Amino acid sequence: MGFAKEQQLQDSTRGFVSSGKAICPDHIPDEALKQHIQDYALEAACSFCPAMGTDDGEPIAAAFDDFMSGFMVGVHLHYRRANDEGTPFEDGDFKIEHFDSDAIAVELFYETSQGVDLKRK
């Protein structure tokens, strides 16, 4: 199997596409996810704001893929992949209401961010 196909399968299994970006905790309202970013911080700069680590090289951001891996743990506690659950499939579509991981991630993030200023201070 070629690299591109293998990457596509990994992305599908994880529920998100690798980005190569980094994120600092200032963008996340959920305390557990903020802690996850701090625990995995290895990057000197955030890709979403001008935040930089300290002059002595202390990292400020985690790889976005590491953040999303933690985020998707929570998603998978509440949602299952339709393919893995024996969902009826006919004429090229599922026969029940279903959601893709992008829609679920947006909905969950929106719910947790209500009333929170997500802009960097």
Structural features:
121 residues; mainly alpha; 3-stranded antiparallel sheet; two-stranded antiparallel sheet; 5 strands; disordered C terminus
Question: Could you please describe the fold and organization of this structure?
Answer:
The chain is mainly alpha-helical. It has one domain. The protein has helices spanning 3-14, 31-39, 64-78, 101-113; strands spanning 22-23, 41-43, 61-63, 89-90, 93-94. Strands 1-3-2 form a 3-stranded antiparallel beta sheet. β4 and β5 (93-94) form a beta hairpin.
- What summary fits the major beta sheet? 3 strands, antiparallel
The number of strands is: 5
Give the DSSP E fraction (strand runs of 2 or more residues). 5-15%
Total separate domains: 1
Task: Quote the average pLDDT.
Answer: 78
Overall 3D shape: elongated
Q: Work out the oligomeric state of the chains in this entry.
A: single chain
Helical percentage: 40-55%
Strand order of the largest sheet: 1-3-2
Rg, Å, rounded: 17 Å
Helix count equals 4
> Order of helices and strands, N to C?
HEHEEHEEH
Q: From the helix content, strand content and strand pairing, which structural class follows?
A: mainly alpha
Weakly predicted, low-confidence segments: 115-121
Distance between the termini: 46 Å
Short description:
This protein is 40% helix and 10% strand. The chain is built from 4 helices and 5 strands.
List the helices and strands and how they pair.
Elements lengths: L2 H12 L7 E2 L7 H9 L1 E3 L17 E3 H15 L10 E2 L2 E2 L6 H13 L8
Antiparallel strand pairs: 1-3, 2-3, 4-5
